[in-house]
């Protein structure tokens, strides 16, 4: 099979020296990649600078990206040249990217200017509408301050939605067996399965691996693999999860073929 | 000499899976640490998980921190037990830490509620004052939303000032030869020296190493070491900068002794 794996975590630049980073060691992606390679499959592996990687192999190609935008561009480029049989989208992708950053003083100055421009503020509905309108204008049009004044006690960072990569994967590669991932924090098994299945349905995945940050400690890694019919199988280490995903993707691919 | 070095870059948590990270490879700190060790000095080396480190050595002690708050705590703890002869503060420390995060909807709802509570909004001065007061209340009292609604198109991240570590270093270790660092982006040599000297004076450093991100490429690293009298010396690689800092700190220490 020709396999695409995304792993690691994206970063979104705030400025030249600061980013918002999604933490991911990449260890699960590495285990999945190595398991596919052991089974003789070809792997295109998209990852981020800080994540660990599978051992180099003649069937393995690396692509390195940092931001969600770079991820989108790299994937669209691959899809021009390759058709994938399986896609394992384990990368922790930022839902939001930076829009602008302002000191509290600059923010209030801009906001007052826009509110006043928008007119009557005495009416509650007007005020709410005017605030939405003003925030939208500030977010979209005001450049981050080049140099934050040193007396500034508070900064306001505007973040806007990133494109949904998982939806694009299904749209561009309808033939692929698609595995999505969902990480939650401190929820019940029922909620984990319910949210995982909702993600699967929404994004037309074949499987979703649902896991909880509080059930991941070193190599212990509790994961629940959910299929389209709502059936679940569990695994308790990264290697077990990798084995489970590889065997399910192979099985599904054989059934489709 | 008994030397303290800080290196790497701090991270500030946004939530369980995201942080704001100050980028720093730690390569300059590693070069400075290894040069002090080669000269037979003892080194306490405070660093961050992603940064590279000096080769282990019997005269070298590592302390690992992530946030600016952890850095402050770790340093205060060291100062209870150690007196340092030289302090090289090369860590990229976040000026700001996260205060709260809200979706645009939640932000506007809270803001309207507080503005209305504060009364008359028709007057421009009142509006500005009410906005400062409302933002302050929101920042300090509103918890981040546990789960960001999936329809949210914009997030507002409130950041507040971190304690100034360099000021605390001089206050707690008045006897130490103190070296501060200032990284700017795309400025003239004159501005670099002027800003570096201002930082030196403000924080009572003995030296400041001023450098520009645009003059750092791999091992090429242009740095200007400024002393209290405004004299400057330059170096063009990380090793040259390390040699320059170590020799200047040794010389200054001998003169004080």
Automatic annotation (TrEMBL), chains A, B:
Signal peptide, first to last residue: none
Gene Ontology biological process terms, A to Z: coenzyme A biosynthetic process
Pfam entry (one): DFP
Gene3D superfamilies in UniProt: CoaB-like (3.40.50.10300)
Superkingdom to which the source organism belongs: Bacteria
Xref: SUPFAM superfamilies: CoaB-like
Coiled coil: none
Record bears the keyword Iron: no
InterPro entries associated with the record: CoaB-like_sf, CoaB_strep, DNA/pantothenate-metab_flavo_C
Domain DNA/pantothenate metabolism flavoprotein C-terminal: 2-102, 145-250
Keyword terms: Ligase
GO molecular function, one term: ligase activity
Protein name: Phosphopantothenate-cysteine ligase
Native species: Enterococcus caccae ATCC BAA-1240
